[in-house]
Design brief:
With about 325 residues, the protein is of the alpha/beta class. The chain has helices spanning about 10-15, 20-25, 35-45, 55-60, 75, 85-95, 110-120, 140-145, 170-180, 200-215, 225-240, 250-265, 300-315, and strands at about 65-70, 100-105, 125-130, 150, 165, 190, 220, 245-250, 275-280, 290-295, 320-325, 325-330. Helix content is about 45%, strand content about 15%. The strands form three sheets. Strands 7-6-8-9-10-12 form a six-stranded mixed beta sheet, sandwiched between helices. Strands 2-1-3-4 form a four-stranded parallel beta sheet, with helices on both faces. Strands 5-11 form a two-stranded parallel sheet. The chain is elongated.
């Protein structure tokens, strides 16, 4: 026999309170005594009452949904780059623990950015996280001007960056290069990341700073955080300086391509050329040889990103810049 769906009135009768009290509890009001709140929550659980989300949103002006925007093509997001699933996993874990919903959106073109701005302006989400930005992406500033709470996963180049959660990319790169120099490498190259991204720029700065401190010459090629670009850049570096004995690669994914290019060029790792990557993705443990790398807490970035946005939308103050540490993980490649 079909049981009627529990209503606000049936919850009120079970809890022994008024309908208005149940409504206030459901909508998150603080103007309810603790005993009444506990009675209402107990009645909701006993009856299996499911609040009307649309009505709740009208009352609270909240959707309990948050957007994670990735300014990338879908083919890049759903590639073998472990950064994206790691950040999504961390964000999802934090929002799920807070009983919130995640909306995943991609914005690589002006048209897609306009669509996201309209979506956010219509208040379909309570706040926005932006990750993997290229250049001075106008989206975070546009959202902030609309009054949309926004947190980024890196600082936005320019005079006024929205709040962000990132890692110390320059310090991590310097750790990697200093390790190569301490091991006796004197011709240390880098395969840098894209120079329209903060991570790419800062990791190159850290590489240069470490070489300047040791008074060694720089040898730079640029990739795009893909395996293929790492292999191409490594071949370019070997053509320019065949005597290279060390290379810092700005991502593990590019480092996998670097290892392949070195093997095909007949260079032994680490005997001839030592290699250090960045990210500590899981495949780095299983390359041949296993990859020395700089660990950044990718899922932790996602969790902190969501946590900061939740605090911001709750009216709490947050740090304008939350910079997480990196650490060197030494394996057989260097």
């Amino acid at each position: 026999m079909h049981r009627p769906r529990p209503t606000l009135e049936s919850v009120a009768r079970r809890a022994g309170v008024s309908r208005a009290t149940v409504s206030r509890v459901v909508n998150g009001s603080t103007k309810v005594g603790e005993d009444s709140r506990e009675a209402v929550l107990s009645a909701i659980q006993e009856l299996g009452y499911i609040p009307n989300q649309a009505a709740r949103s009208l009352v609270t002006q909240r959707t309990d949904s948050f957007a994670l925007v990735l300014p990338e093509e879908p083919g890049r997001v759903f590639s073998d780059d472990r950064f994206f699933p790691g950040v999504v996993r961390g964000v999802s874990q934090e929002l799920e623990a807070a009983d919130k919903q995640l909306v995943l959106m991609m914005a690589r073109s002006a048209a897609s950015r306009d669509r996201i701005e309209r979506f956010a302006l219509a208040r379909h989400v309570d706040g926005v996280m932006v990750a993997s930005m290229h250049g001075a992406d106008p989206l975070p500033a546009a959202l902030a001007r609309m009054g949309i709470p926004v947190v980024c996963n890196e600082r936005v180049p320019g005079p006024a960056s929205p709040p962000y959660v990132g890692v110390d990319n320059a310090a991590g790169a310097a750790l990697a290069v200093e390790h190569l120099i301490r091991s006796g490498r004197t011709r240390v190259a880098t395969v840098a990341g894209p120079q329209d991204m903060v991570a790419g720029m800062d990791r190159l700065s850290g590489y240069r700073a470490a070489l300047d401190g040791a008074r060694l010459a720089a040898h730079v090629a640029v990739g795009d955080f893909t395996q293929e670009s790492g292999a191409v850049a490594m071949r370019e570096l070997l053509d320019r300086e065949p005597r290279l004995d060390g290379v810092f690669v700005a991502s593990d994914l590019m480092a996998i391509g670097v290892l392949r290019a070195l093997r095909r060029a007949g260079r032994r790792v680490p005997d001839d050329v030592a290699v250090v990557g960045f990210d500590d993705i899981e495949p780095a443990r299983y390359t041949e040889p296993p990859l020395t790398t700089v660990r950044q807490p990718i899922a932790g970035i996602g969790r902190r990103l969501a946590r900061q946005l939740l605090r911001l939308t709750a009216g709490e103050s947050i740090e304008p810049a939350l910079v997480l540490p990196t650490e060197l993980v030494i394996r057989e490649s260097a």
